[in-house]
């Protein structure tokens, strides 16, 4: 399980996170949504122990698979080397990865759809390709908790579909607690059980996607009219989607 209880984080006089509580047990997936500057990344960092809490508590296992928004490196490392870094906590101080660690890392690259990048320099990959490699690194930890900070932000639509399909398959397996932030409510519909809406007024709504991800709540969240539509998926089954009212407004 991972989460926060009555957590407060202040930046100067401003409470970026104010008495925030939520928990994600193994087998559940949580999407966190909020407008820019509302504190989504701060909440993740607090949950992971990277950001000091001014009040409240955090809960997390010793090892967490974490995918940050951006990763920059000056070192000419191959993607496989980045992925095998996920095994660091299992190696001990100053120990080198063994053959089994590379096997795990290669399997993680394959699962993330990044096996084709294994021998390529990480710093030569596109932003979207790097994100998939970092996801493989998180999977290679073997942790029961996976945390992703806006994982689809650098991905084109094709790679967003690949990512969301992977997150949904992990959710369906029910072996991990998954937390990810996003600006797109449709990502939550595609791959989350629960949703946390961090409202502009400092309040938060937490609960099952079907109950919380409504046009009325999203209008409060983003300040624009929203609507719900049903679209046929590849198999013909109708899937719910959320759109801002301006989507498709142009007549021709």
Describe the overall structure.
The chain is of the alpha/beta class and 252 residues long. Helix content is 33%, strand content 27%. It has nine helices and eleven strands. It has helices at 40-48, 79-84, 88-91, 99-111, 127-140, 157-173, 185-191, 209-212, 215-222; strands at residues 2-11, 14-24, 29-33, 55-59, 65-67, 145-148, 177-181, 194-198, 204-208, 226-232, 238-244. The chain has a six-stranded mixed sheet, sandwiched between helices. Helix 4 (99-111) packs across helix 5 (127-140). The longest helix has 17 residues, at 157-173.
List keywords for this structure.
252 residues, alpha/beta, three-stranded antiparallel sheet, 9 helices, globular
Strand content: 25-35%
Q: Identify the overall geometry.
A: globular
Radius of gyration: 19 Å
Uncertain stretches? none
- As laid out across the biggest beta sheet, the strand order is 5-6-7-3-8-9
Give me the number of helical elements: 9
Beta-strand segment tally:
11
Q: What percentage of residues falls in helices of 4 or more residues?
A: 25-40%
User: How confident overall, as mean pLDDT?
Assistant: 90
The largest sheet, given as strand count, sense and whether it forms a barrel, is: 6 strands, mixed
Structural class: alpha/beta
Terminal Cα separation, in Å?
50 Å
Q: Order of SSEs, N→C? A: EEEHEEHHHHEHEHEEHHEE
């Amino acid at each position: 399980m991972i989460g926060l209880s009555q957590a407060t984080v202040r930046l100067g006089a401003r409470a970026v996170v104010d008495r925030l509580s939520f928990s994600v047990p193994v087998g559940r997936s949580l999407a966190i949504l909020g407008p820019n500057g509302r504190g989504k990344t701060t909440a993740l960092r607090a949950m992971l122990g990277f950001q000091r809490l001014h009040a409240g508590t955090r809960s997390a296992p010793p090892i967490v698979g974490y995918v940050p928004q951006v990763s920059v490196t000056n070192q000419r490392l191959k993607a496989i080397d980045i992925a095998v870094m996920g095994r660091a906590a299992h190696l001990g101080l100053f120990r080198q990865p063994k053959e089994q660690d590379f096997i795990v890392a290669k399997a993680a690259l394959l699962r993330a759809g990044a096996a084709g990048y294994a021998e390529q320099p990480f710093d030569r990959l596109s932003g979207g390709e790097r994100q998939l490699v970092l996801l493989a690194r998180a999977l290679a930890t073997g942790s029961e908790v996976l945390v992703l900070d806006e994982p689809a932000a650098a991905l084109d639509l094709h790679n967003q579909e690949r990512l969301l399909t992977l997150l949904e398959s992990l959710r369906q397996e029910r072996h991990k607690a998954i937390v990810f932030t996003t600006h797109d409510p449709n990502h939550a519909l595609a791959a989350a059980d629960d949703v946390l809406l961090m409202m502009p007024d400092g309040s938060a709504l937490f609960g099952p996607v079907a109950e919380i991800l409504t046009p009325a709540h999203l209008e409060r969240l983003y300040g624009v009219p929203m609507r719900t539509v049903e679209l046929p998926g590849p198999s013909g089954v109708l899937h719910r989607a959320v759109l801002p009212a301006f989507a498709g407004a142009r007549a021709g």
